[in-house]
């Protein structure tokens, strides 16, 4: 009989714990996880910013965070800090301060709308049930956090996610139901 040789299994590769690259977009691991107060948090983008100083370079991070309850309330915030986790926490706190409620008709928006923020423009149109969320990047993050299930969107102008998220929030602020419009007109 030959002596047994120990098995030579290589350990599984560990995920990289390094910093995100410039302009790298990140999302949380479980997008359906709700916090203790019922809000879903999504990290839309993390940017690494470097400042050249006498001794070399200093790095800091800015994080764009979107939160929503899935029922017509959504907020966005920008956090800046020397560490990624701190910038995400600051962005979350800023988003909670900037919460807005918007009008929903079923699981879509009440009417077509176009809004601008900075150099970013976003166009939205209500869609029939079963269409889904036809949106990309920052627009999708805001709409899913707000609880919209069927919508058509187009991002015009800038593709900078900070401006696109701002334009999406501006669209949602301007939404009105037909009942609210009739009430304003005195009918």
Sequence-ordered SSE layout with sheet pairings:
Blueprint: E1 40-53, E2 56-68, E3 73-81, H1 84-97, E4 100-101, E5 113-117, E6 120-126, E7 133-134, H2 137-146, E8 151-157, H3 161-174, H4 178-185
Parallel strand pairs: 7-8
Antiparallel strand pairs: 1-2, 2-3, 3-4, 5-6, 6-8
Helix pairs in contact: 2-3
Q: Please state the structural category.
A: alpha+beta
Q: How many distinct beta strands?
A: 8
Poorly predicted runs? 13-19
Rg (C-alpha, Å): 21 Å
The largest pleated sheet is described as: 4 strands, antiparallel
Main sheet: strand order: 1-2-3-4
Distance between the termini: 97 Å
Structure in words:
With 187 residues, this protein is of the alpha+beta class. It is built from four helices and eight strands, in the order βββαββββαβαα. The protein has helices spanning 84-97, 137-146, 161-174, 178-185, and strands spanning 40-53, 56-68, 73-81, 100-101, 113-117, 120-126, 133-134, 151-157. It has a four-stranded antiparallel β-sheet. It has a four-stranded mixed β-sheet with strand order 5-6-8-7. Helix 2 runs parallel beside helix 3 (161-174). The longest helix is centred in the middle third of the chain and has 14 residues, at 84-97. The radius of gyration is 21 Å and the shape is elongated. The relative contact order is 0.14. Mean pLDDT is 85; it is low at 13-19.
Summarize the structure.
The protein is α+β, with helices and mostly antiparallel strands and 187 residues long.
Structure keywords:
single chain, 187 residues, alpha+beta, four-stranded antiparallel sheet, four-stranded mixed sheet, 8 strands, elongated
């Amino acid at each position: 009989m030959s002596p047994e040789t120990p098995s030579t299994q290589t350990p599984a590769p560990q995920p990289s714990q390094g910093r995100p690259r410039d302009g790298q977009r990140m999302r949380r691991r479980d997008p359906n996880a709700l916090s203790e107060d019922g809000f879903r948090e999504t990290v839309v983008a993390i940017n690494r910013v470097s400042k050249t100083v006498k001794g070399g370079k200093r790095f800091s991070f800015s994080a764009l965070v979107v939160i929503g309850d899935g029922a017509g309330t959504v907020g966005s915030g920008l956090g800046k800090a020397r560490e990624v986790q701190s910038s995400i926490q600051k962005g979350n706190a800023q988003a909670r301060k900037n919460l807005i409620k918007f009008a929903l008709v079923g699981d879509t928006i009440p009417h077509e709308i176009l809004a601008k923020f900075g150099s970013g423009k976003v166009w939205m149109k209500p869609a029939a049930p079963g269409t889904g969320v036809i949106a990309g990047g920052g627009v999708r993050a805001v709409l899913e956090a707000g609880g919209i299930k069927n919508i058509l969107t187009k991002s015009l102008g800038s593709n900078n996610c900070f401006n696109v998220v701002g334009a999406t929030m501006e669209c949602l602020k301007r939404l009105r139901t037909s009942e609210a419009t009739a009430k304003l007109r005195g009918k």
